[in-house]
């Protein structure tokens, strides 16, 4: 995927539905070129094409989600890694930002990583980092392990910190996930009483999904970007949750 196609994907995911003509004007290339780009992106399941428009869609594919806000996710992952000490055993869930965090840690720290994500385990196969992959039912779309066996595996291992992803947050619902079985995995982690850290970009705030991540008091910290609205930030702080926001220069605000 070239830089123009990355820009197209970002634009579509920001606006959810964009015409070919608008994409042509914003990228400075012809509509013919835009259609070629969209054909490629649709073939790779990054977006859908409908009657002269490109339409975003929710995908569980980690590679597809990785391309959304990629540079920002790198900065969030780098900041999250700064909170991890050499010698720690860390749990990292699944998701694109968590995958970047895992790679960053594996290349720079002496840690043991526990994960349910086969995507993350594969990503680290050439590193020296020790990886413990939890067993369970393989959810092919998201490349992660779920179900009762996964829950049992998590209950039997020790880790000092856990990094979790979310699909939504709203003051009335707290943190939520789209998938019931992945939310169950996250809730199993939250029940262990370690330092639980939500790692996500601010686009998830304001969204509500069916499956709650509970209890809210089990979450110690949220790492997100500088675009987080003050209302959400204040609500989290009132719940005794630390909020770290990372700006464009990767400095904490």
Automatic annotation (TrEMBL):
Keywords: DNA-binding, Transcription, Transcription regulation
GO MF annotations in UniProt: DNA binding; DNA-binding transcription factor activity
Transmembrane segments annotated in the record for this chain: none
Residue ranges of domain HTH deoR-type in the record: 1-56
Protein name: DeoR/GlpR transcriptional regulator
Organism: Hafnia paralvei
